[in-house]
Design brief:
Layout lengths: L1 E3 L7 H10 L3 E12 L5 E11 L1
Length: 53
C-alpha cells in the first residue's frame, strides 16, 4: 500500500482505515514496515490486518 507524499502524519491513521474498509471492517491492524516508495512519491507501507467481511 502506498501512502501519498502529501499525507500528513496525523492523517495517516484515518487514511489507512479508509483504505482497509474497502475490503471489510478492520478488527485490528498494524503497520509492519514503512519505506520510501520506489517512485519517490510517497511511503510504501506493509500492513497486516484482520478484517470482518
Amino acid at each position: 500500500m502506498c501512502a501519498p507524499a502529501e499525507l500528513q502524519a496525523q492523517c495517516l491513521r484515518q487514511w489507512l482505515l479508509d483504505q482497509l474498509r474497502v475490503h471489510g471492517e478492520p478488527l485490528r491492524w498494524a503497520i509492519t514496515a514503512a519505506e520510501p516508495s520506489a517512485a519517490g512519491a510517497g511511503l510504501q507501507l506493509q500492513v497486516e490486518a484482520v478484517l470482518i467481511p
